[in-house]
């Protein structure tokens, strides 16, 4: 045996790679590894048991005379066959349980009798090395809590007050991450609020269920919170109450925030009360497409509150269909202008059922304001009219003033009469790798390909979100004069213009 395999860390690393599916059959590979050499047994078993998605393997270590399985309403139910245990019942359990680091429970139930037996064993820590648990309310979570637990995720379609155990702060003192996706009514909210109010070391919190204003206020007071996600949808959410309870300062260490909200106007009222939070990433999802005025109010609130720190701003909605009537939903220079104060932006995305009508001078101002920009995506905003009002020349200021820009997605009119004959005027940007050309008008491929190849020498692809420019699309029914086909031709011309440019550079030497 190679001497490297006598080093435990090396063997553990190999076992971890096999457990992550490096060869495609993690369980089979780890079993083979455990049977190869005695010194491989412990690392292989650690990797085999560390992530569990079912109770069955663990409870199968208990004698069949103690634990049985039945199915009720398509759910696996574990039940006890007797009401007392002896020390020998736990021998195999004690061998494997400490190896479990992550547990996920979905669609399985522990009946009260077996729960009582497991709880009786709880004083010796049922899973003492468990660090993360993804929990669907099948029984009180207390029996699985332990000193190593750092992450709890509540999932499922229903809950009871017992789901959110008040014992969590005591039995899991190292808890750093709390997630809750349980569907529940406001009447069940106090139990979750009570749990949250007793947690003081959280660094990450995701509450997609109903969350009370007092719970938000408590989280806002914690100096440890780095990442948060909240659901502010529903009639129960009162922004005035939330604002009145938020401490000053609020979320003093928050770096990343994601919010689901019915209307952007609600969030525009809350964000100014978070002044001082060092927020770097803000992702907002609205259940309804906002008006342009609401969008501007939100951008004013964001720019006023986070101008010095925000690096990523994404705003989208849950509407999938074209809204039809875009009246009052047109994003103009004036609507976007407040965002120009976000001088540290590296990513700006608006993905909503609205229309875009901005001018070339505004794009120039935008590029000068966002010099650190890496990704600009406005491709889901519908053009106003049959073709975008911006010409392909709008790419020039972005290339000139945003040296780190990698991805561009904005509607432009690339028809031949709007492509500058003089090219990009000596401007080039070697960072841009991709351009999204959704709804970009085009009629001739060569002038566009020449312009883009000169402006973005490192450009790798022009794409659409629906895959309409796929080079492998051999559908004979495609119209060769359609925009999709023409943009596909642009892609195929890139290597030609690259070769011409390279040849010119060689001749220049």
UniProtKB/TrEMBL annotation:
Transmembrane segments: none annotated. Keywords: Signal. It comes from the Eukaryota. InterPro entries: LRR_dom_sf (IPR032675). The keyword Signal applies. Residues 469-481 have a biased composition (Acidic residues). Residues 1-19 form the signal peptide. Residues 466-487 are annotated as: Disordered. This is F-box domain-containing protein. It comes from Jaapia argillacea MUCL 33604. The lineage of its organism: Eukaryota, Fungi, Dikarya, Basidiomycota, Agaricomycotina.
């Amino acid at each position: 045996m190679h001497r490297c395999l006598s080093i435990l860390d090396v063997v553990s690393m190999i076992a971890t790679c096999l457990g992550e599916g490096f060869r495609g059959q993690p369980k089979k590979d780890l079993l083979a590894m455990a049977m190869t050499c005695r010194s491989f047994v412990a690392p292989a078993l650690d990797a085999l048991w560390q992530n569990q998605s079912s109770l069955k393997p663990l409870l199968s270590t208990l004698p069949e005379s103690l634990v049985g399985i039945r199915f009720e309403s398509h759910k696996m139910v574990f039940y006890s066959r007797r009401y007392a245990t002896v020390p020998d019942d736990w021998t195999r359990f004690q061998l494997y349980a400490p190896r479990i680091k992550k547990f996920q429970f979905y669609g399985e139930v522990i009946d009260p009798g077996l729960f009582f037996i497991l709880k009786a064993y709880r004083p010796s820590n049922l899973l003492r090395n468990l660090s993360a648990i993804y929990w669907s309310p099948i029984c009180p979570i207390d029996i699985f809590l332990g000193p190593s637990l750092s992450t709890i995720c509540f999932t499922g379609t229903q809950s009871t007050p017992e789901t959110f155990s008040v014992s969590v702060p005591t039995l899991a003192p190292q808890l750093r991450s709390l997630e809750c996706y349980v569907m529940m009514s406001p009447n069940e909210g106090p139990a979750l609020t009570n749990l949250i109010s007793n947690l003081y070391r959280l660094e990450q919190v995701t509450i997609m269920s109903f969350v009370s204003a007092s719970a938000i206020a408590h989280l806002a007071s914690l100096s440890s919170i780095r990442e948060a996600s909240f659901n502010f949808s529903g009639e129960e959410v009162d922004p005035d109450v939330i604002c009145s309870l938020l401490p000053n300062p609020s979320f003093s260490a928050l770096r990343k925030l994601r919010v689901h909200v019915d209307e952007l106007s609600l969030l525009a009222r809350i964000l100014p009360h978070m002044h001082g939070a060092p927020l770097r990433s803000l992702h907002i999802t609205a259940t309804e497409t906002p008006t342009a005025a609401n969008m501007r109010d939100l951008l004013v609130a964001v720019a006023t509150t986070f101008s010095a720190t925000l690096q990523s701003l994404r705003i989208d909605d849950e509407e999938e269909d074209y809204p039809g009537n875009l009246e009052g939903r047109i994003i103009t220079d004036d609507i976007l202008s407040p965002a120009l104060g976000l001088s540290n932006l590296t990513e700006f995305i608006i993905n909503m059922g609205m229309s875009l009508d901005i001018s070339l001078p505004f794009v120039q101002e935008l590029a000068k304001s966002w010099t650190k920009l890496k990704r600009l995506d406005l491709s889901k905003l519908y053009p106003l009219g049959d073709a975008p009002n911006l010409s392909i020349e709008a790419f020039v200021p972005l290339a000139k003033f945003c040296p780190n820009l990698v991805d561009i997605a904005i509607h432009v009119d690339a028809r031949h009469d709007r492509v500058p004959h003089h090219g990009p005027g000596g401007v080039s940007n070697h960072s841009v790798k991709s351009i999204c050309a959704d709804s970009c008008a085009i009629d001739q491929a060569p002038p566009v390909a020449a312009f883009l190849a000169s402006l973005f020498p490192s450009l790798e692809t022009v794409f659409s979100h629906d895959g309409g420019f796929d080079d492998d699309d051999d559908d004979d029914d495609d119209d060769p004069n359609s925009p999709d086909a023409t943009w596909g031709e642009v892609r195929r011309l890139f290597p030609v213009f690259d070769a011409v440019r390279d040849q010119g550079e060689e001749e220049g030497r």
